[in-house]
Design goal:
The chain is mostly helical and 95 residues long. The protein has a single domain, classed as DNA polymerase, domain 1 (Orthogonal Bundle). Helix 2 packs across helix 5 and helix 4 crosses helix 5.
Length: 95
């Protein structure tokens, strides 16, 4: 059974907001509410792989990228960059 695009987006949005740590909820949830919907199916595949990672790994990967460093698996680099850029804008005190 295959899931349609809207169902997939809803499932990924729920997984983004219900992580296990509040920090990751606040990073991934707003990304899922916004730019995630515009991702191509291949990039959604990478986002889904990212969601399979532990919060204890994801948090330092994303925060490193927010601070201009590289961290995390190379295959997830494009989606990590998108999430980190969105988090930097969303969590910025200047917004």
């Amino acid at each position: 059974m295959t899931e349609d695009h809207d169902t997939r987006l809803r499932r990924l949005r729920m997984r983004s907001w219900r992580r296990g740590t509040k920090e990751m909820d606040l990073i991934l949830g707003p990304f899922a509410d916004g730019p995630m919907a515009a991702l191509e199916p291949a990039m959604l595949d990478f986002y889904e792989q990212l969601l399979a990672e532990n919060d204890q790994d994801l948090y330092p990967w994303i925060t490193a990228r927010i601070n201009g460093r590289t961290a995390g698996p190379q295959e997830l680099a494009p989606v990590l960059d998108l999430v980190a850029a969105h988090a930097a804008r969303h969590l910025s005190p200047d917004r």
